[in-house]
Design brief:
By secondary structure, this protein is mainly α. The chain has a domain of about 270 residues: Rhopdopsin 7-helix transmembrane proteins, CATH 1.20.1070. It is about 70% helix and about 5% strand. It has a two-stranded antiparallel ribbon with strand order 1-2. Helix 5 runs antiparallel to helix 7. The protein is globular, with a radius of gyration of 24 Å. About 35% of the residues are buried. Keywords: Cell membrane, Cell projection, G-protein coupled receptor, Glycoprotein, Membrane, Receptor, Signal, Transducer, Transmembrane, Transmembrane helix. It is a multi-pass membrane protein. It comes from Oreochromis aureus. InterPro entries: Cnbnoid_rcpt, GPCR_Rhodpsn, GPCR_Rhodpsn_7TM.
Length: about 400
């Protein structure tokens, strides 16, 4: 309880003397205080959930020879049976409580953040006219839908242990796959938008138009939905009698390999696009704003941290034997998808100067004091070409907005 009073008075002091220039500072302080309080209150449960009892021989654990993580855990399955959902319900009560707290906390923040982003974009006619904000809006929709479906489905399966019919389960899984695939697809379109703005800045307005942006994200959503429905339409190990995945019930390993390959290609291009921007600025000695450099680093770190462990476990599932310990790790690593949806609005939307200005316009609308947004249809990053003093060399100045 002493920790609570300490954090409470620290919170009041930081609120009183905090920066007034950052429009999100008060919300951040509230969030940090709430998360700190929840962590202190549930720290014993979280630590116990994240510290399972390891066997003396670690190689036995990784090779699948361990019997269980804790006494009273889920029963071991000698083989992956499509009909036996209990083989995948392997979390202990303390682990269930931990994932429930994580899922509900991250899910709440994700929903609120993406709702704010969507409301600001829909309210601002200037932002709606820019192709880059069509992609950011698509990302916000995907993360909003994905967080709701994921939290409901994940807790329903791993915590409440609901055993749905095969079609109902595959329908829920299709919603999760569609939303997260669309999220990665929206990141891919955003990377293309910024890649073109750097690679061909003079032709950006001609290449990236509002109509092309609408067509692009509409096709991306259609493809994501079709891919997610394939297991429900028959591409599953129960219907085909093929080898099932050890981490996804009813999912055929060939379908999992197909989804991993497609997602990996998109993520690799996203990483390449932002690495190209960094290389371009360094190679041509361009002036890169410190804020933009931080944004690029955040993008790359978020992609690697949030998707790297998940894809690694999925690849291991294709070529190795997955035991209950790895399934438990995968269940916790699944929270990284939700974490990615939580940080996307911060990285791609809330760091935009125009979006923050539009948000302030909404807040100050009643006072009649609004700020004018730049109505040009530029990318989210303003790219300008400036001729050198000698009239020979052109340099690209990248200004983060």
């Amino acid at each position: 309880m002493n920790y609570f009073y300490f954090y409470f008075f620290l919170f009041l002091f930081s609120w009183r003397h905090g920066s007034v220039l950052d429009i999100c500072s008060e919300k951040i302080k509230v969030s940090v205080f709430c998360i700190s309080f929840c962590f202190l209150y549930f720290k014993e449960v979280i630590f116990s959930a994240l510290s399972p009892i390891f066997p003396t021989n670690v190689s036995d654990l990784l090779l699948g020879n361990a019997t269980s993580l804790e006494g009273g855990g889920a029963p071991q399955c000698a083989e992956n049976l499509a009909d036996n959902m209990e083989c995948f319900m392997i979390l202990t009560p303390s682990q269930q409580l931990a994932v429930a707290i994580l899922a509900l906390t991250l899910g709440t923040f994700t929903v609120l953040e993406n709702l704010v982003v969507l409301c600001v974009i829909l309210h601002s006619q200037t932002l709606r006219s820019r192709p880059s904000y069509h992609f950011i809006g698509s990302l916000a929709v995907a993360d909003l839908i994905g967080s709701i479906i994921f939290v409901y489905s994940f807790l329903d399966f791993h915590v409440l242990h609901r055993k749905d019919s095969h079609n109902i389960f595959l329908f829920k899984l299709a919603g999760v796959i569609a939303s997260f695939t669309a999220s990665v697809g929206s990141l891919f379109l955003t990377a293309i938008d910024r890649y073109v703005s750097i690679h061909k800045p003079m032709a950006y307005k001609r290449i990236i138009t509002k109509t092309k942006a609408v067509i692009a994200f509409s096709m991306m959503w259609t493809i994501s939905i079709v891919i997610s429905l394939l297991p429900l339409l028959g591409w599953n190990c129960k219907r085909l009698g093929t080898v099932c995945s050890d981490i996804f019930p009813l999912i055929d390993q060939k379908y999992l390999m197909f989804w991993i390959g497609m997602t990996s290609i998109l993520l690799l291009f996203i990483i390449y696009a932002y690495m190209f921007i960094l290389w371009k600025s360094h190679h041509h000695r361009t002036r890169m704003d410190l804020r933009l450099a931080k944004t690029l680093v955040l993008i790359l770190v978020a992609l690697i941290i949030c998707w790297g462990p998940l894809l690694a476990i999925m690849v291991y599932d294709l070529f190795g034997k997955v035991n209950d310990f790895i399934k438990t790790i995968f269940a916790f690593c699944s929270m990284l998808c939700l974490l990615n949806s939580t940080v996307n609005p911060v990285i791609y939307a809330m760091r935009s100067k125009d979006l923050r200005r539009a948000f302030l316009n909404i807040c100050h609308m009643c006072r009649g004091a609004t700020q004018t947004l730049d109505s040009s249809a530029e990318s989210d990053w303003n790219i300008k070409s400036v001729r050198g003093t000698a009239g020979r060399n052109n340099s690209i100045i990248i200004i983060a907005v």
